[in-house]
Design goal:
- The protein has two domains: 291 residues, no CATH class; 66 residues, no CATH class.
- Helix content is 8%, strand content 29%.
- The strands form three sheets. Strands 1, 5, 6, 7, 8, 9, 12, 13 and 14 form a nine-stranded mixed β-sheet that branches.
- The structure holds calcium ion (CA) (4 copies).
- One calcium ion binds next to loops.
Length: 379
């Protein structure tokens, strides 16, 4: 089915003189963003949506990030999709001195306790960012069914002042609807704060499902639809000092519906990880790489996952297989090896003959290999 997409913003702009540089909040990546500042490097543990429907998604993924400043607004485009089950897209912005490296327990109560659920519960825990990343502002987005017409999305926002408190609240709602003829109408959110959000969930590419290394821009093609956020700079410059905003960094991730279970869809990426789970226990400082995206940065190119040969006890061997694929099929994987190099399925070392796959320990994988080959005659 082809979808014809119109947006109310685009219709409104149509009455104005065309002005180069104006980005449209419609969920699509405008050329004015420039190059992506980050590309996802992790499969999604929150479901790989392959339906391509603009107003529905069975999973969530963040394939890439583009960030720029346009007409007095901070603009963020996240290529991907947000599952229409009210899971949350959490966005933290570090754009001025001060802020919170670890989420405090005394922030504004927005989005039904979003920051309280992720922040310090009084025991000194709390979601912690990479060293030097001190978040100043928070935006949270969730979407779900809008009476069968498509999706409705709700936006919440809060200041993250160095010592907590600050102001925040509900920042409005928007919709993406599809009529019976397949016409799509995206109505970006509007609210008292001037924040605007639009979602186009039609991505069916990007990363696949799983916990391994993956690439959010397969074959160097960026995912151009997803979630687009416009934030007036005056919300960040709360004392109206005329801050320069020349060093803006964004940490974005998908979280559970109750802000209660961090996925492995984080930008910058985790580089091959399962979902992170309990938000208060997450410390991005202990995870390799930057779990934030810098405005103006060039995205690191995707690193393909390591491959090797995958040997089976029945004599079969596959070349060019990832560890994940081989493990799923209960084979014995050797990094960078070819089937022509041969397979050694003769059991573990002399010191540890029960370590069938030579992993260094006798564990359930050895048992599964044994069971999988039970009854096979040996030469
Ligand atoms: Ca756009
Ligand atoms: Ca800051
Ligand atoms: Ca995908
Ligand atoms: Ca890190």
């Amino acid at each position: 089915m082809r979808f014809l997409i119109t947006t109310t913003a685009a219709i409104a702009l149509g009455t104005l003189t065309a002005h180069a540089g104006i980005l449209t909040v419609d969920g699509s990546l405008d050329s004015g963003y420039g190059d992506l500042a980050a590309i996802q490097n992790n499969s999604t543990g929150f479901g790989d949506d392959q339906g391509g429907h603009p107003a529905y998604a069975e999973g969530s993924e963040l394939n890439g990030a583009a960030i720029t400043i346009d007409q007095g607004n901070l603009m963020i485009h996240l290529g991907g999709n947000l599952q229409s089950n009210f899971n949350k897209l959490e966005i933290f912005i570090d754009a001025r001195d001060g802020g919170q490296n670890k989420i405090l327990g005394i922030n504004p109560d927005v989005g039904f306790g979003a920051l309280q659920r992720m922040g310090d519960d009084g025991s000194g825990n709390g979601l912690t960012f990479d060293a030097g990343f001190e978040a100043d502002y928070f935006v949270s987005i969730g979407c779900g069914d809008d009476n069968g017409n498509g999706i409705i999305y709700y936006v919440d926002c809060a200041e993250l002042r160095t010592n907590g408190d600050g102001v925040g609240g509900f920042a409005g709602s928007g919709t993406t609807h599809v009529d019976i003829d397949g016409n799509v109408t995206i109505t970006p959110s509007t609210g008292d704060q001037g924040i605007s959000v639009a979602i186009n969930n039609s991505n069916a590419g990007g990363v696949i499902g799983g916990d391994g290394v993956d690439c959010g821009a397969p074959n160097d093609v960026a995912v151009e639809t997803g979630i687009e956020i416009q934030i007036p700079l005056f919300l960040l410059d709360w004392d109206f000092e005329g801050l320069p905003f020349d060093n803006v960094r964004v940490c974005a991730f998908i979280n559970g519906g109750g802000h209660d279970f961090v996925s492995n869809q984080v930008l910058g990426g985790l580089g091959g990880s399962a979902n992170l789970g309990e938000p208060r226990g997450v410390d991005f400082g202990t995870i390799d790489g930057n779990q934030f995206v810098e405005m103006g940065a060039d995205a690191a190119p995707c690193v393909p996952p390591a491959t090797g040969n995958c040997c089976f006890a029945n004599g079969e061997c596959w070349d060019g297989v990832t560890y994940e694929n081989c493990d799923t099929n209960r084979g014995l994987w050797t990094e960078n090896a070819l089937c022509a190099d041969g397979c050694d399925l003769g059991g573990g070392s002399d010191d540890c003959p029960t370590d069938v796959d030579n992993s260094g320990a006798t564990d359930v994988d050895d048992l599964l290999i044994l069971i999988g080959n039970f009854g096979n005659p040996c030469p």
